[in-house]
Amino acid sequence: MAFKKDDNFGEWYSEVVVNSEIIEYHDIPGCYILRPWVMEIWELLKEFFDAEIKKLKSKSYYFPLFVTENVVQKKKDHFESFAPEVAWVTKTGNSELEAPIAIRPTSETVMYPYFAKWIRSHRNLPLRCNQWCSVVRWECSNPIPLIRSREFLWQEGHTVFATKEESDEEVLHILELYRRIYEEFLAVPVSKGRKSEMEKFAGGLYTTSVEAFIPNTGRGIQAATSNCLGQNFAKMFEIFFEGENDPTQKKKNKKDKRSLVWQNSWAYTTRSIGVMVMTHGDDKGLVLPPRVAPIQVIVIPDPLLEDADTAAIKGVCETIVYTLNQAGIRADLDARENHAPEWKYSHWEMKGVPLRIEIDVKDLANKQVRVVRRDNGAKVDIPSTDLVEHVKVLLDGIQDSLFETAKQKRDACIEVVHTWDEFTAALNDKKLILAPWCEEEEVEKDVRARTEGDLGSAKTLCAPFDQPDLPEGTVCFASGKPAKTWSFWGRSY
């Protein structure tokens, strides 16, 4: 590694994601090739999340990635928030298209005309659909691999209900699944909360999110969102249903008797993996939490002596890999003969494999193996007969340790402020700021304007659901008006 995490975070991150074989740079700036190592992590996350939403009876769909211009213009109030990032197709071959076609930055305008077609009565509800796909948002400022790219992978769920109560319940259920993805799988601490009116999803009723924080840069990052769209999109796209025992069911041309549906949308992206890299990586490269590591244990033979019984050592290594795999542990053998063991150690450390097992002649004779942890470098000799149980305990310990360490670092960055001077000092000190706020949009705009600089301006991240006590008489840090809530603030990605 040419760069150290604490010295030059941006260059360090760029080096890690390439050298660990997560991404390769593409010849179109802001677009990246996702290599097998990152795709396997994404598939592990997908396996968990897909199973959970299928319990909710969510169905898989795939909608086209193109949006016609007439739909965009018809729904421009929603689309305008994405307008600066929308990519357009204007010609095919050498011929200009009659009308340009947008490439989806999100799929509301693609999906909802068909929801209006499919939904007629309460019997069609709830409608729950999800698709795993890519979207394009033409980032022009500062693309960062996995964090801000011009094309990225995500899942987007879109659901339709008869009542607001059903909608509200699902919003929080999905948000909890996102928390689990980050905290239980990626070992990244997040805060659940509600976005401000300025920061909510365009056209929605309200937005909830999980928010992460990167201590090295002092920046928050929106990790995933679960949106209650209310009935705004139902009005735009004329999505109605006729209720049970509704006397208008058998009548025609009585549209005013029908009810508007309630809708949600929710999504998380491959940004989640970038957040994980930033949180756990070190000066040797990636550090992967065991639950998302494509290979949890790498086994490396080390003959030591030229006349060592390499065949016997390799045979034991193969048996260990087989035994671990049979126990449900993702293990692999690096038996390449054109690289020295030390090179292999460095290679797999760079790729972040949680555990390394080394076997040499002495280990063979003593019927033991040496196990090395990636997260802290600790080494322990384990009898071969007890290997599976020891490895399981070690993997669980690494998963827990990574989360607790990350949480301690994040919590150490949280600073509670009450005044503007305290706020600006904490912002300059790269803190995650918790401040009492009056919730007025003009005040939020003013905070952004007053903190604008080379590093970007401060913004609200979310009002956490876990609210500290707000004593009567507490005033907003920025306006001096009565405070209504505690909110996280900071610079963000």
UniProtKB/TrEMBL annotation:
EC code:
6.1.1.15
Q: Per the UniProt entry, what are the Gene Ontology biological process annotations, in alphabetical order? A: prolyl-tRNA aminoacylation
Q: Does the keyword Ligase apply?
A: yes
MF-aspect GO terms: ATP binding; proline-tRNA ligase activity
Q: Which domain of life is it from?
A: Eukaryota
Which reaction is catalysed here?
A: tRNA(Pro) + L-proline + ATP = L-prolyl-tRNA(Pro) + AMP + diphosphate
Instruction: Offer one Pfam family short name for this entry.
Output: HGTP_anticodon
Provide GO CC annotations from the record. aminoacyl-tRNA synthetase multienzyme complex; cytoplasm
Keywords, A to Z, come to: Aminoacyl-tRNA synthetase, ATP-binding, Ligase, Nucleotide-binding, Protein biosynthesis
Q: Which intervals hold domain Aminoacyl-transfer RNA synthetases class-II family profile?
A: 40-289
Matching InterPro entries: aa-tRNA-synt_IIb, aa-tRNA-synth_II, aa-tRNA-synth_II/BPL/LPL, Anticodon-bd, Anticodon-bd_dom_sf, Pro-tRNA-ligase_IIa, Pro-tRNA-ligase_IIa_arc-type, Pro-tRNA_ligase_II_C
Q: What is this protein called?
A: proline--tRNA ligase
Q: Which organism is it from?
A: Triticum aestivum (Wheat)
Higher taxonomy: Eukaryota, Viridiplantae, Streptophyta, Embryophyta, Tracheophyta
